[in-house]
Amino acid sequence: MASAARRALLVLTVLPLLALAACGYGSRAVDDGTVKAVAGAPRTDGLDEIRIGYFGNVTHATALVGNREGFFQKALGGTQAKYAVFDAGPSEIEALNSGSLDIGWIGPSPAVNGYVKSGGKNLRIVGGATSGGVKLVVDPEKIRSVRDVAGKRIATPQLGNTQDVAFLAWAADQGWRVDAESGTGDVTVVRSDNKVTPDAFRSGSVDGAWVPEPTASRMVAEGGKVLLDEAGLWPDAEFVTTNIVVSQTFLAEHPRAVETVLRASVETNRWITAHPREAKAAANEQLRADTGRALPAEILDPAWASLKVTDDPLAATLRTQAEHAVRAGLLERPDLDGIYDLTLLDKVLEGEGRPAADDAGLGVA
């Protein structure tokens, strides 16, 4: 068994989410000509451009729709919104660290990972984006109830990622013992790239998977059954899937620009909620532009329905997710004090007559 320090280092190396995006590293700039800065319009904070990152995934719905419908660009006026689409959390964190990205949409695990590895110096979570969209999908011929999961092979996206930790915590709640690092025990945990998990499920090499959307809906399309929606395990059926992060340097130097992006994010989420059908179509069109392929309706529709856009970063659930990783033995208790700075979000919310967001005691002093 690895030492506690080695386990912590391992998890901090592999803790990226997400889950919610294709796994594989790297990013690519996107410039599909959707909306351009208005020539001669005032620039935000005197900036020529703001570099915005997100994943080409429905769990980043706010960024997809905000890009496609021009909410961010309209808010930024003469400052050009430049977009980069990332395949995984580590590359987005690296971009923030290197200064090649200013603000981004990202999942909780890479945010925690990046914050802890930098000693609390590289990023802040400044807003919320989405909740939900994670399911346990199983082969209904092999698994008909929760008790049937025992002894089966269940895929998760990556050792120590958000869904992996959630499954290990849930398995422990069932009374099953699993060695977190090897994945062996009363249930076998198979760490599998989200891109290949549906194929592994089809071939029978795994019996189910605890995965984010749209992987869950892809598996259902392959004959799987949703045994459990993770939202049902959380108070009010809400838990953080995607947040907005910003480099601390950019936040300190350009708070007005960050506030402008947050204001546009809040406006985007309001539009998504008021126009769900149009928003779903807009997100899919942006996915087509970003990845070269839109999602078919049988996958997009259930994936979209399981998500909820939210301005609230749901900080208490991030704290709980970190506690689950500690309980699983995958992470030494991290110091997350100061990971949130919700000052600018609260300013935007206050201007709309809405209550301030809760940072769960993890805000900047």
Automatic annotation (TrEMBL):
Pfam families linked: NMT1_2
Q: Where in the cell is it found?
A: Cell inner membrane; Periplasm
* Organism superkingdom: Bacteria
Annotated InterPro entries:
ABC_SsuA_sub-bd, NrtA/CpmA_ABC-bd_dom
Q: In its keyword annotation, does this UniProt entry include Signal?
A: yes
What GO molecular function annotations does the UniProt record carry, in alphabetical order? ATPase-coupled transmembrane transporter activity
Q: Does the keyword Cell inner membrane apply?
A: yes
- What start and end residues bound the annotated signal peptide? 1-21
Q: Which keywords does this chain's UniProt record carry? A: Cell inner membrane, Cell membrane, Lipoprotein, Membrane, Signal, Transport
Task: Please provide, in alphabetical order, the Gene Ontology terms of the cellular component aspect for this entry.
Answer: periplasmic space; plasma membrane
> Which family does this protein fall into?
Belongs to the bacterial solute-binding protein SsuA/TauA family.
Q: What is this protein called?
A: Lipoprotein
Q: Which organism is it from?
A: Streptomyces griseoviridis
